[in-house]
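REQUEST FORM: STRUCTURE PREDICTION
Request ID: SP-0412
Submitted by: Lab K.M.
Chain count: 1
Length (residues): 90
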Amino acid sequence: MELKTARLTLLIDPNKKAAFERLCAQQDRTPSQVVRQLIRDYLAEHEVSYVASGASASGPAPPPRHAVGAKRSARKAAPKPPPRGRSRKA
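STATUS: Completed
RESULT:
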């Protein structure tokens, strides 16, 4: 699974885009999932190799994406310490 992402922006006919989005919805897939698969297939067809981000030719596999998100959520849920500085006396 790729861990890093990069944005690919393209222009497409609005009617073609709408038809593509409808087809993706019927297949219970997002347009991004379909485009990523099309790119992987195109690279394979032309025998272009690459290493997916987060993958390593040697060494352990990266942690599952859900585990990374769980750690992030736990950090956000932790209470914040009181602010430092002078306290005002009334």
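NOTES: Residues 66-73 have pLDDT under 50 and may be disordered.
Reviewed by: T.R.
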